[in-house]
Amino acid sequence: VKPRNYIGLANTVHDPALAIVDSRGEVVFAEAAERSLGFKRAFFCPPDDPMRVRELLDTYCEPGAELVVAHSWLERRWKSVLFRAGWHFTRASVSPLLRPTILGQMNSFDLASLSLDYRLHEADPARAPVEKRYFDHHLAHAAAAAFASPFNEAVCAIIDGQGETAPDSFFHYRGGGFASLRSWRWRSFSRSGSLGVFFAALCVACGFDPMKGEEWKVMGLAPYGQKDARLYGLMRGLLRVEGLEVLGNNWQIISKLHALKPPKGRAPLESRDVAFTGQLVFSEVAAELLRNLHRLGLGDSLVLSGGCALNSAFNGRVTEETPWKKVFVYCAPADDGNAVGAALLAHREDNPGTSPPAKVASPYLGSRLSASSREGVQSLGKLRNTRPAGVPVTLYAAQLIAQGKIVGWAQGRAEYGPRALGNRSILADPRAADVKDRLNATVKFREEFRPFAPSILHEHGAEWFEQYQDTPYMERALRFRPEMAPKVPGVVHVDGTGRLQSVSRELNPRYHELISHFYRLTGVPMVLNTSFNVMGKPIIHSVEDALAVFFSSGLDALVLEDDVYEKG
Ligand SMILES: [Fe+2]
Q1: 394: CA distance to ligand 1 center in Å?
Q2: Mean pLDDT along residues 82-102
Q3: How do strand 301-305 and strand 326-329 relate by DSSP bridges?
Q4: Could you tell me which residues are beta bridge partners of residue 242?
């Protein structure tokens, strides 16, 4: 019998991604298309990048495997839903001249998987037939997250922009299966309120661009502001929670919030009260939904996913503001994560009863750095490995960081999801008060109000954070203990929180070792971790990308696996 492998496609117009699940149900590869394309969020690009899909299948599929392709939207509806979503996006934020081009592309979006089929036939006719399956968009969100969680049983809340029938969905996860907890029918765009649409429109209201994924800036800016009563009245009136449903009119949400858009050239800090009030309204509505969900009496474990689960400020407050006691948020809660969700659902259909191990899944599922490119670096003549023989790379890098150097650190497989979690990261000393300014001015070239995050040894989490929760994917912001915050000014945001990553030996032994060395050198069990990219670009994908950032920025050192390169 031939083994069966499952190719999951996250095939929304934004954040396309591809995942491969083997015959045992293991996720052997998962990566967003933006990384290899160097195009942040990869709007309107196919998930199966024609330039590399063959290579990925050859590398990660079992030899001779029969392939099943799994989409993350239901067949009948997804085209029209995507079309509507795209129309709304383009209507809202794209110049009239470009609209016909983009709409034309959206109509032919199905090319994504057709081209995959075609290439497979062409490459190896024996590999055909390729079977295609289509899964509910929110079920794919739920599957990716629940199967990666440490729970055997939980309630999944998918709070999103839009699915086939509604912006949000809720499932009871038990025994590896999902039961829908949603009881209402489809509502038109003008008769429902979407928290995802609200936050994207809030992003515009603050002067940022959701098409570029600038929602992060809203969260960074919010703590600088305060509640504005007039804005609160306006925004809160746009969304109303009834049971498990948010009512409102998405068109109205868009038009009212877009009307707040600041004139070009105004300083972002001027929008801080808009950001604060919007984040407050988002949190109130989401918390009300989650409180209503808890009333169903299905336990205290919550799996949170969908695009709105990227709101790390809210994620960190769920256990305080709702009765949920344990909260798990997936490493890729937005649409890129659905490649894994769809592939696992397809595997589960063929192998009913297989339960995934109830432990936190690894986010390190992406590409490796090419070995030949790494060797090539050494023959450039310009760079040589400065790490002394016999000194482990983790110790040497920790020494550099403790000396105040800014280090680009690339090792192992790339992270799945939007966060750099210690494999494609820029690392620095969190004790230095000026480190934020140095990073912003010379490396990241980004706004001064955006915070930097700490990666902390999990075993020291409770010493440094109030109400510490394991945060393996940098998915929530928690409050620093007031007596500890002054020791690490580089990673404390203006409201006293930090969007931490809990680093465990189990998920990332090498990164854990680096921070352990830093702890022995300094007494501080954490480093500053920011994604290895420059503003506006996705996280680095290749050795060449890493070199480009190294040479064009103020990075002091570059670590590629075991090799260390230093400037000056
Ligand atoms: Fe989604």
Answers
A1: 38
A2: 47
A3: parallel
A4: 245
Q: Both tokens of residue 521?
A: 């050198």
Q: How far is the CA of 370 from the centre of ligand 1 (A)?
A: 32
Cα 386 to averaged position of ligand 1 atoms, centre (Å): 45
- Amino acid (one-letter) located at 268: P
CA of 306 relative to ligand 1 center, distance in Å: 5
Give the distance (Å) from ligand 1 centre to CA of residue 13: 11
Taking the centre of ligand 1 as the mean of its atom positions, its distance from the CA of residue 361, in whole angstroms, is 20
Residues in the chain: 568
Please, what is the average pLDDT of the chain?
89
Between the CA of 160 and the centroid of ligand 1 the distance, in Å, is 5
Q: Report which of residues 165 and 428 the model is more confident about.
A: 428
Return the SS3 of 426.
Answer: strand
pTM, rounded to two decimals: 0.91
pLDDT band at 187 (very low <50, low <70, confident <90, very high): confident
- The pLDDT value given to residue 450: 86
Residue 256 in contact with residue 271, Cβ under 8 Å? no
- 76 — pLDDT class (breaks 50, 70, 90): low
The predicted-structure confidence for 230-242, as pLDDT tens digits, reads as follows 999 999 999 999 9
pLDDT level of residue 449 (50, 70, 90 thresholds): confident
Six-digit token string for 177: 């299966």
Residue 530 near residue 381 (C-beta atoms within 8 A): no
Instruction: Write down the pLDDT at residue 126.
Output: 58
Q: How remote is the CA of residue 322 from the centroid of ligand 1, in Å?
A: 23
Q: Cα of 167 to ligand 1 centre, how many Å?
A: 8
- CA 414 / ligand 1 centre spacing (Å): 22
Its sign, for the CA torsion 372, 385, 518, 406, is: negative
Tokens of 442: 């010379």
How far, in Å, is the centroid of ligand 1 from the Cα of 335? 5
Sequence-ordered list of residues with C-beta below 8 angstroms from that of 8, at least 6 positions apart, any chain? 18, 19, 20, 21, 30, 70, 72, 338, 339, 340, 341, 342, 343, 344, 346
Positive or negative: CA dihedral 61, 67, 73, 78: positive
Six-digit token string for 191:
């008769």
The per-residue pLDDT for 184 is 60
Q: What separation in Å is there between the alpha carbon of 113 and the centre of ligand 1?
A: 19
Q: Coil, helix or strand for 221?
A: helix
At 107, is the pLDDT very low, low, confident or very high (cuts 50, 70, 90)?
A: very low
